[in-house]
Amino acid sequence: MINVTKSYLPDLEEYNRYLEGIWERVHLTNDGPLLRELESQLKEYLGVRHLKFCTNGTVVLQMALKALDITKEVITTPFSYVATTNAILWEGCTPVFADIRPDDYCIDPDKIEPLITENTQAIMATHVYGNACRVEQIQAIADKYGLKVIYDAAHTFGATYNGRSILSYGDLSTCSFHATKVFHTVEGGCIVTDSDEMAQKLHFYRSFGHRNDDYYSIGINAKNSEFHAAMGLCNLPKVPSLIAARKQVFSWYDTRLDFENITRPTLTPGVDYNYAYYPVVFESEAKLLQVVDALKRNEILPRRYFYPSLNTLPFVAHLAQPCPVSEDIALRVLALPLYPDLPESDVDRICQIVNETVSANVASIEQ
To answer: What family name appears in the similarity comment (predicted)?
Structure first.
C-alpha cells in the first residue's frame, strides 16, 4: 500500500534517550525543559523572534483570532484545509471568501479589496501547499484599511520567501507540526509573532491565562508535552535532508508525468520551496475520478487535497459566496504520494498509471 504521505520517524534509540530524561525528571508537560529547548531551536532555525509551541495547528489559528480581538468579518480563502474556516467560525467570526489565483491557488489579492466592509477586521490567508501568498499585496491592502493579517502557514516549514521564513510574515503566523508534515512532533503546531507584548499574551493564552496562582487573562489548554517536544528535537536536525529527499521525489514526478493533459500550480517568484506536496490538476473531475480509481486498484492512495472548496461547505451555505476558480480547481486537483523514502520505482509506477489513464481518456474522447 502506498499512502499519500508517510511520517518520518527518527532512530528509536535517539528518541529513547530523551525519554530517559523525562523519566528521570518526571516533568511531563507544563512548559517543560524539552519544550523550551525545542522552542529555542525552532526560533533559531526559522529566524523568528517569538514562537510558541502548542498542541496543534488549529488551536493556534483560534488563538490568533482571539489575541488580535477579531470578532466580526474575516476575509479568507476557500482553498485550504477546513481548519482555516472552522477556526473563524469557532471564534464566532464570519468568514468572507475571496477567490484564489488561477496559477498558484493562493488567495487573490485583487479579490480581497472589493469584499472589505465596515465589519472587516482581518485577512486570514493560507500559503497553499507551502507556496507563499502575494504577501506584499496583502499587506498593502491591510495597511490601507487598518486590517490584521493572519497566515495559515501549516505547510510552509522549511520554506522561505525572499530569504525569510514564510512564517515570519503577517501580524501572526501559524504552522502545523502534525505527523504528515515536513517537520512533525506527532501532534503539534506553533504560532509566531515579532511582538514582545503579543508573545506574552499568547504565552498566557496557551496555559489557561495564569502562572502558578497569578491570573493574567483568559486562556485555554494549548500546552504541548515533553514527549511531543522530544520528537521535535529528534526531527528538527533532519529537516534539510528530508527536504532534499522530497525534492528528489518531486523531480522524478516532474520528469515522468505527461503534462500534455495535466497541470501543476506555479511557484511564487522568490520562494525557496520545501516540497511539501505534489498536486496535479486534471482537465475534469471525471478524469480525476478515473485516475483515483486506477491508482486505488493498484493499492495507491492519493488525496483530493483541497476538496471541497470551503465556500461550498453546508454550514456556510447561507453566506452564498461564489468562488468560481476555487470551486473549479477543487474538483480537479489531486495530491500524489510524496514522502522522503518513496522509491523511484513506485514513482515510475504511479506516473505510468496516471499517464495511461489520462491518455486513454483523451483517446476515447477523440474517437
So the answer is: Belongs to the DegT/DnrJ/EryC1 family.
